[in-house]
Amino acid sequence: MAVQTGAPLAAELIVANAPDPVFVCDLNGKILVANNAVSQLLGLRRDEVLEQSLSRFLSATEASEFVAAVREVIDRGVTRNVRLRPRSASGDTIPTSLNAAALRDPHGKVIGVIGVLRDMRELDKARAYAESLIKNAPDPVFVSDLEGKILQANDAVFHLLGFRPAELIEQSLSHIIPPDETREFVAAVREVVEKGATRNARLHPRSASGEIIPTTLNASALRDASGNVIGVIGILRDMRELDEARRYAESLIKNAPDPVFVTNLEGKILQTNDAVSDLLGFREDEVVEQSVSRFISSREAGEFVAALREIVERGVTRNVRLNPRSASGDVIPTMLNASALRDNEGRVTGAIGILRDMRAYDRVVCALEESRRELQAADQAKDRFLAVVSHELRTPLTAVLGWARMLQGGLLDHASAVRALEVIERNTTLLAQLIDDLLDLSRIVSGKLQLDLRPVDPVGVVQAAIEAVRAVADAKHIALKAVVDPSAGPVVGDPKRLQQVVWNLLSNAIKFTPQQGVIELTLERADGDARITVRDNGAGIGPHLLPHIFKPFQQGNDARRHGGLGLGLAIVHQIVGLHGGSVRAASGGDGHGATFVVELPIRRERFEDKEIEAERVRRSGSEHDTKLELSNLDGVQVLVVEDDPDAREMLKGVLQQAGAEVISVGSAAEALDTLHHRRADVLISDIGMPDEDGYALIHRVRALGPKSGGTVPAIALTANARAEDRSHALAAGFQMHLAKPIDPGELTRTIAETIRVSSFARRSGTPDQNIL
Fold this sequence. Notes:
This protein is α+β, with helices and mostly antiparallel strands. The chain contains 23 helices and 27 strands.
């Protein structure tokens, strides 16, 4: 620097060592000092720059701007920034930014100008690149100053809003958004400037056509080369489709049949549908903005929070069992299916939960579990039953087989032989009773037990049952006391089955009452019913067994010691129920006896005394007679058809003892062949035979002519003792039906009666009638 300028030495030192191009000019703009960076920028030697005005390297327009800037710096002492494009030695125009400031002497007097040139080529390239990015961005992007004036916008902005560039550039954003959103935008800009942060805001600009367009603004800082915030870069996202999708999703939630709710990341409920209100009994406003934890227990709240955390962190779907409490206080079992709720950028913003009411499911599960337990119990009962049946059948069979073989071997004297026959008869009767009980229960359970309903005097029923068991009671020295009210009736029922009920109760009482015990039977009229009470002072019933006493195969330890299948009380319960009555049991516990009460509805309509008397006659005639009496069948020719050799031999022996002439065969074919060659007064046929059964045989017999045996009286023998089995046999052409096991006395009496009725029919010229 020349001494005559008076420029401070400090200025010369600053210029020489500055990294940027720096020069000093006088008050007329002539360059007095320039550093090497100026020479390098312009491609000139230092002596080619000094003593030259900067205007020499500028266009006329920019030279005028430079002179004006220098004049303003000198006159006002301000700093000016001017964009200049000096031409280098090679002829290239170099974009620069000039920062010009006053140069003062020690007294503060302006003696020149110091200028700093900044090479803008790289910055302009960067700006051009940034502008290209903005221009070609698919999303609407704009640049505004710190007051919200739009400086630049890409085509996507104009397409979104429908404005031409001239209608939007240099306009404030407040012209197209409502006042409240303008304030929100200004606050966002302030935060961007002060914190350098990025802000999101929801804006609804009005388009050129007047449409309000929902958008999301992402605003970030625009900085200059020095890092100063000079404006805002805003990215608008058109939310119309997303809002439509959100409304559609909300509609799906609202109309979903299952209860659906949406929560934020903290578990606060943001939205629910009507199904949630229906399930919990709360109004929507009582649920929304509440935490899920409010409706569940603290333990389940912990499980829900853990599930929510896993959903947020891993984006998984979780199933959680929850039991929310309803508005009425009920705890409702539900299954929650919770999955992540994401925003349009894929970020997890909450959870969507679907509740499934598990009450019906739980009831089904409980029912299935109960069924499983019942099946298991039934299976165990079946196993116990089979074991009991095996025992109860084998025990009498042991006695029968043992004594029979001793008789067969001639090992017994006369007295022992008589004793053997008594044992065989008693145990055979016991076996028949066991089988009858099994068949009765099977018919009852399958709904195939048919009742022969008629007016019944319960007095006769009770008396007949007492007489049937009196011998057994006397053998144990048990006092059997009865108090009978003759007015306790009549009832409508099957007399045989009602007697079976009373007989079973009395037999049960005798079984569990020790010697010298007492059994009391009472028949009385009570509350319009005939009430039969059987009370004993025997073993009693434990409280654990009492609720199950009428179930099949249920026996206590005492019952197992006394034998039996455990079916008697089950049969009593079922038969009484079929008569429209009820039966109940009571006991003070083990060792305190038991009481059974049967109540049967009394028939309201009057009926003739002769009907009751007829019933009494039938009862008296059906009393059990242990003495074997065979009817006289002298000269009667009987054809026996039985496929089992032992049964066939027994039938033949009984009939021969009664005086009959017996022809026994083992099949239907043999029977037909016999009828072609021999006369028979009576045909006795088993039903269940192989090849051709008894029904097929009687059909073929009835197809024969009278001289070939087509009208021979016939009696059916079958192991099926149901009323419908008897009806089937009579309809097929048999005159009588007998159920196995066969009592010899009953067999001979039936044959004699059949012959008598058949002879009467022939003499009177009327067709044979079935004997009922």
